[in-house]
Amino acid sequence: MKIAVLLGGTSAEREISLVTGRAVGRALAERAHDVLLVDPAVGDAPIGVREAEAAAEIGAAPPPIREEAGNAVRAIAGEAVRAADVVFVALHGGTGEDGTVQGLLELAGKRYTGSGVLASALAMDKRASKLVLRQAYVPTPAWHVVSFEQDLDPAARGGSPSLPTDLAPDQAAEAAERLGGYPVVVKPNDQGSTVGLTVVRDEEGLGPAVELSGRYSRHVLIETYVPGREMTVAVLGGEALPVVEITPRGGLYDYESKYTKGMSEYHCPAGIATDLADMLAKTALCAFSAMGCRGYARVDYRVSPSGRPFCLEVNTVPGMTEMSLVPMAAAAAGIGFADLVDRIVRMALK
Predict the structure, then answer these.
(1) Which pLDDT value is given to residue 150?
(2) Is 230 labeled as catalytic in the residue annotation?
(3) Residue 55 confidence (pLDDT)
(4) Mean pLDDT across the stretch 170-194?
(5) Is residue 13 among the annotated active site residues?
(6) Is 239 a catalytic residue?
(7) For residue 8, is it left (φ>0), alpha (ψ between -120 and 50) or beta?
(8) 301-319 pLDDT, tens per residue?
(9) Mean per-residue pLDDT for 199-225?
(10) Residue 66 confidence (pLDDT)
């Protein structure tokens, strides 16, 4: 089968995507597929495995976002994608995960892995996804949105539109008060991999946290901090895989803790009571369905000291690095990495 793997891209998660795409491409090649790697940041020319190997290193901080949208259009229209039987989307964040690339693939008439346009857009927009989760009775932490677009002409706005309930950046302290005070979580509304995320413990740290998140998004989510345990549930083909618990050594599962070896410990299956594991699986499947996801996804949680799970977000293109959580959960279910990516491809063909 001819498979084009889209990797890299222009978002702040570019480095992670290169590692994911390289691993996916290698696994598919092991299954005797004809694999070409395509980086939309470059254009329509396929990149070699050696080039991908050299580029696939994750730093301790996310790279800057690159603005080269035209190359993504050329990549989708290029020969490598045009000749492929299926496209494996290994792009994280930005236009690769927010429905934009999925829309281009739809227009090109190509089958591709993962969720479609609407589910991708909803999941990437944290406010929109929280509204869907709330409607589906999936608990999620309370939130407010601070918008840097309040004074912009509508034509200049990007991403999620500003709403009448949005607050201006100088009203961030008011948002924290409405949520019951500190600590609060401050993060960009439309980024993944905890890019730009800060746990703010007092008003002094709020301004810098909002400013940091504002570098990555025009909309900043201020969210109630849920103390407790970090857990995630992978969904594969409508089935919830074993729960993974993450224990970051620094206390916060941030970008560095995710992608630096030794910074976090992982337990799969998580050492939790059966009723909690069942509740996490049930709500993960509910979130997956409510968003309209397909194929596979990962649903992230904080579990409070009382044992109540709060859904943080749904990831429609979860990582596939050596430290990634979906392959870890699949392995606990008896599914090897090559089998996992091959299964994802075959689900796309259906």
Answers:
(1) 59
(2) no
(3) 52
(4) 91
(5) yes
(6) no
(7) left
(8) 999 999 999 999 999 999 9
(9) 93
(10) 62
For the stretch 147-181, pLDDT in tens is: 987 555 555 555 677 777 888 889 999 999 999 99
300 is catalytic: yes
| Catalytic residue list contains 313 | yes
319 is catalytic: yes
Residue entry with tokens 């996490």: 280
* pTM for this predicted structure: 0.90
Token pair in block for residue 150: 């309040």
- Rounded CA-CA distance 178/199 in Å is 17
Rounded to 10 degrees, what is the CA torsion of 28, 31, 36, 40?
-10
**Which of 13, 15, 223, 230 is flagged as catalytic?**
13
Known catalytic residue at 34: no
Selected catalytic residue, list 129, 193, 213, 324: 193
CB 192 within 8 A of CB 13: yes
Note if 315 is an active site residue: yes
Q: Of the listed 115, 264, 319, 324, which one is catalytic?
A: 319
Domains, the chain, ordered by start: 2-112 (3.40.50.20), 124-139+227-338 (3.30.470.20), 143-224 (3.30.1490.20)
Q: Cα 33–115–30 angle (5° rounding)?
A: 15
Q: What is the DSSP secondary-structure string of 257-274?
A: HHHSTTSEEEESS-S--H
HSE-CB of 77 using CA atoms within 13 angstroms: 6
List 229, 298, 302, 342, catalytic entry: 298
Catalytic residue among 15, 39, 254, 300: 300
Place of tokens 């050594």: 249
Among 63-67, 68-72, 83-87, which stretch is predicted with the lowest mean pLDDT?
Answer: 63-67
Task: Point out the catalytic residue in the list 255, 259, 296, 301.
Answer: 259
pLDDT of residue 50 exceeding 60, the answer is: no
Q: Is the pLDDT of residue 54 over 50?
A: no
